[in-house]
Design a protein that fits this description.
CATH superfamily: Endonuclease/exonuclease/phosphatase
CATH class: Alpha Beta
Distance between the termini: 9 Å
Shape: globular
CATH architecture: 4-Layer Sandwich
């Protein structure tokens, strides 16, 4: 069995421009092999390629001015890049929402995902979230899993899978992140045979979060949500070594409201 591993991190940076010093600092300290970024909030031509390359990373991005935006950064070659989910042309829904990028790194098929928030609900934004999750499930079932490659789907899913993943379950019961419809569609992804990496290794953990709102002293009170996840195909789950939440960046000056989650897999 190979002892070589690959470390893949997911990090919603909440504006790559505003958070660039924090991101490059984190890359230098954590040194992931691959970093999946979400909420870049910049167009492709405004992405800070020079600074990211100076940190030792190639970058493939799917950007959008002021909103959304996802990227795959890697110390290794990035191949077979796909931007966007299938079905956008027919639905006309993703042309202005850059939320999904997928590529191959060291034999792993890896995606960076920024799933719609869905609030306020009920309404069009929540309906769009649910449709987007159905499209994601279809792409995984129809295109990714049949390849039988090790697949790593990391990102901000904007779903708290269970009440153990939210500091105030009653207060968030009607929030789009915790609604039964959102959780059911998240479970539908798992029912395809995917493994949620962090929960698989921490089955009974509570009070572990990856997001804290900027207001109300949420970080200081540890009033958080666990909404950043890695879903692994069976071929990737068989290689799972560790998955941890790196709280350090959230405690820095002018941080993102999210903090990275890092998975380690055997190559």
């Amino acid at each position: 069995m190979s002892t070589e591993t690959i470390r893949i991190a997911t990090f919603n940076v909440n504006s790559i421009k505003a958070r660039l010093p924090r991101v490059t600092e984190w890359l230098d300290e954590a040194k992931p092999d691959v970093a999946l970024l979400q909420e870049l909030k910049c167009a492709d031509d405004a992405f800070p390629h020079l600074e990211i390359e100076s940190a030792g990373y190639r970058a493939e991005i799917y950007g959008q001015k002021s909103y959304n935006g996802v990227a795959i950064l890697s110390r290794h070659p990035i191949e077979e890049v796909r931007r966007g989910l299938p079905g956008a042309d027919e639905l006309g829904e993703e042309a202005d929402q850059a939320r999904y990028i997928e590529a191959t790194v060291k034999g792993f098929r890896i995606a960076s995902i920024y799933l719609p928030n869905g609030n306020p609900r009920p309404g069009g934004k929540f309906d769009y979230k649910l449709r987007w999750m159905e499209r994601l499930r279809g792409h995984i079932a129809d295109s990714l899993l049949p390849s039988e490659r090790p697949i790593v789907l990391g990102g901000d899913y904007n779903v708290c899978p269970t009440d153990a993943d939210v500091y105030d379950p009653k207060g968030f019961a009607d929030d789009a992140l915790c609604r039964p419809e959102s959780r059911n569609r998240f479970r539908a992804l798992l029912n395809l045979g995917l493994t949620e990496a962090w929960r698989a290794l921490h089955p009974n953990a509570e009070g572990k979060y990856s997001y804290w709102d900027y207001g109300g002293g949420a970080w200081q009170k540890d009033n958080g949500l666990r909404i950043d996840h890695f879903l692994l195909s069976p071929q990737a789950a068989d290689r799972l070594v560790s998955c941890e939440i790196d709280r350090t960046p959230r405690g820095k000056e002018k941080p993102s409201d999210h903090t990275p989650v890092v998975v380690e897999l055997r190559v």
